[in-house]
Protein backbone atom coordinates (compact mmCIF):
# COMPACT_ATOMS: atom_id res chain seq x y z
CA UNK A 1 0.00 0.00 0.00
CA UNK A 2 1.44 3.39 -0.99
CA UNK A 3 2.14 6.22 1.41
CA UNK A 4 -0.97 8.14 0.34
CA UNK A 5 -3.25 5.13 0.02
CA UNK A 6 -6.28 4.80 2.24
CA UNK A 7 -6.29 2.12 4.94
CA UNK A 8 -9.73 0.50 4.63
CA UNK A 9 -9.43 -2.09 7.38
CA UNK A 10 -11.96 -0.29 9.59
CA UNK A 11 -13.98 1.47 6.89
CA UNK A 12 -17.30 -0.18 5.91
CA UNK A 13 -18.46 -0.43 2.34
CA UNK A 14 -20.26 2.70 1.23
CA UNK A 15 -24.05 2.28 1.22
CA UNK A 16 -26.34 3.61 -1.47
CA UNK A 17 -26.94 7.35 -1.30
CA UNK A 18 -30.48 8.40 -0.39
CA UNK A 19 -31.46 11.21 -2.76
CA UNK A 20 -35.07 11.39 -1.57
CA UNK A 21 -34.37 13.80 1.30
CA UNK A 22 -32.07 16.83 1.48
CA UNK A 23 -28.64 16.30 2.98
CA UNK A 24 -26.81 18.98 4.97
CA UNK A 25 -23.40 18.29 3.42
CA UNK A 26 -24.83 18.40 -0.10
CA UNK A 27 -26.78 21.61 0.64
CA UNK A 28 -23.60 23.26 1.96
CA UNK A 29 -21.80 22.03 -1.15
CA UNK A 30 -24.49 23.69 -3.27
CA UNK A 31 -24.20 26.99 -1.39
CA UNK A 32 -20.44 26.91 -2.03
CA UNK A 33 -20.98 26.40 -5.76
CA UNK A 34 -20.01 22.71 -5.74
CA UNK A 35 -21.42 19.99 -7.98
CA UNK A 36 -21.90 17.15 -5.47
CA UNK A 37 -25.59 17.74 -4.80
CA UNK A 38 -29.02 16.76 -6.12
CA UNK A 39 -32.24 18.53 -6.98
CA UNK A 40 -33.70 17.86 -3.53
CA UNK A 41 -30.68 19.60 -1.96
CA UNK A 42 -30.88 22.59 -4.30
CA UNK A 43 -34.60 22.96 -3.51
CA UNK A 44 -33.88 22.95 0.24
CA UNK A 45 -30.96 25.33 -0.24
CA UNK A 46 -33.08 27.71 -2.29
CA UNK A 47 -35.88 27.57 0.29
CA UNK A 48 -33.36 28.65 2.93
CA UNK A 49 -32.14 31.40 0.60
CA UNK A 50 -35.71 32.58 0.06
CA UNK A 51 -35.88 33.44 3.77
CA UNK A 52 -32.25 34.54 4.00
CA UNK A 53 -30.67 35.35 0.62
CA UNK A 54 -27.29 36.00 2.23
CA UNK A 55 -26.65 32.31 2.93
CA UNK A 56 -24.44 31.99 -0.16
CA UNK A 57 -22.22 34.79 1.16
CA UNK A 58 -22.18 33.24 4.62
CA UNK A 59 -21.01 29.90 3.22
CA UNK A 60 -18.15 31.64 1.43
CA UNK A 61 -17.29 33.67 4.55
CA UNK A 62 -16.92 30.43 6.50
CA UNK A 63 -14.72 28.93 3.79
CA UNK A 64 -12.46 32.00 3.72
CA UNK A 65 -12.14 31.77 7.51
CA UNK A 66 -10.89 28.21 7.10
CA UNK A 67 -8.35 29.46 4.53
CA UNK A 68 -6.97 32.17 6.79
CA UNK A 69 -6.74 30.08 9.94
CA UNK A 70 -5.09 27.11 8.22
CA UNK A 71 -2.61 29.42 6.47
CA UNK A 72 -1.76 30.96 9.85
CA UNK A 73 -1.37 27.54 11.45
CA UNK A 74 0.88 26.15 8.73
CA UNK A 75 2.82 29.41 8.43
CA UNK A 76 3.27 31.59 11.49
CA UNK A 77 2.36 28.87 14.00
CA UNK A 78 4.52 26.20 12.33
CA UNK A 79 1.91 23.42 12.60
CA UNK A 80 2.51 20.38 10.41
CA UNK A 81 -0.34 18.11 11.55
CA UNK A 82 -4.07 18.74 11.09
CA UNK A 83 -7.11 16.78 12.27
CA UNK A 84 -10.20 17.99 10.39
CA UNK A 85 -13.25 16.54 12.17
CA UNK A 86 -16.61 16.57 10.40
CA UNK A 87 -14.99 17.60 7.16
CA UNK A 88 -18.02 17.30 4.90
CA UNK A 89 -17.82 17.06 1.13
CA UNK A 90 -14.66 18.09 -0.71
CA UNK A 91 -14.79 21.41 -2.51
CA UNK A 92 -12.08 23.71 -3.79
CA UNK A 93 -9.18 24.40 -1.42
CA UNK A 94 -9.64 21.72 1.21
CA UNK A 95 -7.58 21.80 4.40
CA UNK A 96 -4.73 19.71 2.99
CA UNK A 97 -4.44 21.89 -0.11
CA UNK A 98 -4.27 25.10 1.93
CA UNK A 99 -1.79 23.68 4.45
CA UNK A 100 0.48 22.00 1.92
CA UNK A 101 0.79 25.13 -0.19
CA UNK A 102 2.46 26.68 2.85
CA UNK A 103 4.12 23.55 4.23
CA UNK A 104 4.45 20.72 1.68
CA UNK A 105 5.35 18.25 4.44
CA UNK A 106 2.06 18.81 6.32
CA UNK A 107 -0.03 15.77 7.27
CA UNK A 108 -3.81 15.97 7.32
CA UNK A 109 -6.42 13.49 8.55
CA UNK A 110 -10.07 14.03 7.64
CA UNK A 111 -12.74 12.57 9.93
CA UNK A 112 -16.40 11.97 9.08
CA UNK A 113 -18.99 9.24 9.62
CA UNK A 114 -21.30 10.36 6.83
CA UNK A 115 -21.84 7.69 4.14
CA UNK A 116 -21.99 10.37 1.45
CA UNK A 117 -18.61 11.77 2.47
CA UNK A 118 -17.23 8.24 2.46
CA UNK A 119 -18.29 7.89 -1.17
CA UNK A 120 -16.24 10.99 -2.01
CA UNK A 121 -13.31 10.23 0.32
CA UNK A 122 -10.93 9.34 -2.48
CA UNK A 123 -11.16 12.92 -3.74
CA UNK A 124 -9.60 14.03 -0.45
CA UNK A 125 -6.76 11.54 -0.56
CA UNK A 126 -4.26 13.52 -2.53
CA UNK A 127 -1.07 14.95 -1.16
CA UNK A 128 2.27 16.46 -1.94
CA UNK A 129 5.06 13.85 -2.07
CA UNK A 130 6.49 15.24 1.18
CA UNK A 131 3.21 15.16 3.12
CA UNK A 132 0.29 12.81 3.60
CA UNK A 133 -3.51 12.82 3.77
CA UNK A 134 -5.88 10.21 5.14
CA UNK A 135 -9.61 9.82 5.70
CA UNK A 136 -11.07 7.91 8.66
CA UNK A 137 -14.64 6.82 9.27
CA UNK A 138 -15.34 7.86 12.85
CA UNK A 139 -17.97 9.70 14.86
CA UNK A 140 -17.48 13.12 16.43
CA UNK A 141 -18.74 11.63 19.70
CA UNK A 142 -15.93 9.03 19.84
CA UNK A 143 -12.63 10.91 20.27
CA UNK A 144 -10.83 7.75 21.40
CA UNK A 145 -11.54 6.06 18.05
CA UNK A 146 -10.63 9.23 16.18
CA UNK A 147 -7.29 9.42 17.95
CA UNK A 148 -6.57 5.71 17.47
CA UNK A 149 -7.23 5.73 13.74
CA UNK A 150 -5.64 9.13 13.15
CA UNK A 151 -2.44 7.91 14.81
CA UNK A 152 -1.77 5.91 11.63
CA UNK A 153 -0.88 9.26 10.05
CA UNK A 154 -0.35 11.76 12.87
CA UNK A 155 2.18 11.75 15.70
CA UNK A 156 0.23 12.79 18.79
CA UNK A 157 3.40 13.48 20.75
CA UNK A 158 3.82 16.56 18.52
CA UNK A 159 1.44 19.54 18.10
CA UNK A 160 -1.76 18.95 16.14
CA UNK A 161 -4.36 21.47 14.97
CA UNK A 162 -7.94 20.26 15.43
CA UNK A 163 -10.31 21.79 12.87
CA UNK A 164 -14.04 21.97 13.73
CA UNK A 165 -15.54 23.92 10.86
CA UNK A 166 -19.28 24.56 11.37
CA UNK A 167 -19.85 21.06 12.74
CA UNK A 168 -20.69 21.58 16.43
CA UNK A 169 -24.15 22.93 15.62
CA UNK A 170 -25.11 19.34 14.88
CA UNK A 171 -24.73 18.66 18.64
CA UNK A 172 -27.64 20.64 20.14
CA UNK A 173 -26.91 20.06 23.83
CA UNK A 174 -24.44 22.66 25.14
CA UNK A 175 -22.87 20.49 27.83
CA UNK A 176 -22.40 17.55 25.47
CA UNK A 177 -20.99 19.77 22.72
CA UNK A 178 -18.42 21.34 25.07
CA UNK A 179 -17.52 17.92 26.44
CA UNK A 180 -16.84 16.61 22.94
CA UNK A 181 -14.52 19.54 22.19
CA UNK A 182 -12.71 19.13 25.52
CA UNK A 183 -12.19 15.43 24.87
CA UNK A 184 -10.85 16.08 21.37
CA UNK A 185 -8.14 18.41 22.67
CA UNK A 186 -7.57 17.00 26.17
CA UNK A 187 -4.65 14.72 25.31
CA UNK A 188 -2.99 16.91 22.71
CA UNK A 189 0.45 18.25 23.60
CA UNK A 190 1.09 21.88 24.47
CA UNK A 191 1.45 23.98 21.36
CA UNK A 192 -1.48 22.27 19.64
CA UNK A 193 -4.42 24.36 18.44
CA UNK A 194 -8.20 24.35 18.21
CA UNK A 195 -9.91 26.10 15.30
CA UNK A 196 -13.69 26.25 15.62
CA UNK A 197 -16.33 28.06 13.57
CA UNK A 198 -20.06 28.00 14.18
CA UNK A 199 -23.34 29.38 12.84
CA UNK A 200 -24.59 32.16 15.10
CA UNK A 201 -27.81 33.82 16.23
CA UNK A 202 -26.72 37.15 14.75
CA UNK A 203 -29.78 37.73 12.55
CA UNK A 204 -33.49 37.06 12.93
CA UNK A 205 -33.63 36.18 9.22
CA UNK A 206 -30.93 33.55 9.74
CA UNK A 207 -32.78 32.09 12.73
CA UNK A 208 -36.05 31.94 10.77
CA UNK A 209 -34.31 30.30 7.81
CA UNK A 210 -32.60 27.81 10.13
CA UNK A 211 -35.92 26.85 11.71
CA UNK A 212 -37.36 26.14 8.25
CA UNK A 213 -34.22 24.19 7.29
CA UNK A 214 -34.42 22.07 10.45
CA UNK A 215 -37.98 21.14 9.46
CA UNK A 216 -36.93 20.08 5.94
CA UNK A 217 -35.75 16.58 6.84
CA UNK A 218 -32.06 17.44 6.72
CA UNK A 219 -29.92 16.92 9.82
CA UNK A 220 -30.86 19.80 12.14
CA UNK A 221 -28.32 22.46 13.10
CA UNK A 222 -28.45 24.60 16.23
CA UNK A 223 -27.26 28.19 16.00
CA UNK A 224 -25.49 29.56 19.09
CA UNK A 225 -24.74 32.97 20.56
CA UNK A 226 -21.25 34.42 20.51
CA UNK A 227 -20.98 33.81 24.26
CA UNK A 228 -21.96 30.16 23.86
CA UNK A 229 -19.44 29.70 21.03
CA UNK A 230 -16.71 31.35 23.13
CA UNK A 231 -17.21 28.69 25.82
CA UNK A 232 -15.74 26.05 23.49
CA UNK A 233 -12.37 27.76 24.00
CA UNK A 234 -12.44 27.73 27.82
CA UNK A 235 -8.96 27.08 29.24
CA UNK A 236 -7.17 27.73 25.95
CA UNK A 237 -5.06 30.73 24.87
CA UNK A 238 -6.96 32.61 22.21
CA UNK A 239 -5.09 33.93 19.20
CA UNK A 240 -5.88 37.57 18.48
CA UNK A 241 -8.45 38.90 17.71
CA UNK A 242 -10.23 36.19 19.70
CA UNK A 243 -13.70 34.77 19.09
CA UNK A 244 -15.24 37.14 16.57
CA UNK A 245 -17.47 37.26 13.48
CA UNK A 246 -15.55 35.25 10.90
CA UNK A 247 -14.98 38.14 8.48
CA UNK A 248 -13.19 40.00 11.33
CA UNK A 249 -10.62 37.29 11.99
CA UNK A 250 -7.43 38.69 10.39
CA UNK A 251 -9.00 39.68 7.07
CA UNK A 252 -6.73 39.65 4.06
CA UNK A 253 -8.01 43.05 2.95
CA UNK A 254 -8.25 46.35 4.76
CA UNK A 255 -11.57 47.86 5.77
CA UNK A 256 -14.19 45.34 4.70
CA UNK A 257 -17.14 47.50 5.56
CA UNK A 258 -20.10 46.01 7.43
CA UNK A 259 -20.03 42.27 8.11
CA UNK A 260 -22.36 40.17 5.95
CA UNK A 261 -25.69 39.81 7.71
CA UNK A 262 -25.78 36.59 9.70
CA UNK A 263 -22.03 35.95 9.61
CA UNK A 264 -20.98 33.06 11.84
CA UNK A 265 -18.51 33.22 14.72
CA UNK A 266 -15.06 31.66 14.84
CA UNK A 267 -11.80 31.60 16.71
CA UNK A 268 -8.42 29.97 17.04
CA UNK A 269 -6.73 29.03 20.30
CA UNK A 270 -3.48 27.44 21.45
CA UNK A 271 -3.29 24.69 24.02
CA UNK A 272 -1.13 26.14 26.82
CA UNK A 273 1.72 24.48 28.68
From TrEMBL:
InterPro entries (alphabetical): SAM-dependent_MTases_sf, SAM_dep_MeTrfase_SAV2177_type
Organism domain of life: Bacteria
KW Methyltransferase (keyword) present: yes
GO MF term list: methyltransferase activity
Keyword Protease set for record: no
Any GO BP: methylation
Keyword annotations from UniProtKB, A to Z: Methyltransferase, Transferase
Region (Disordered): 250-273
Protein name stated in the entry: SAM-dependent methyltransferase
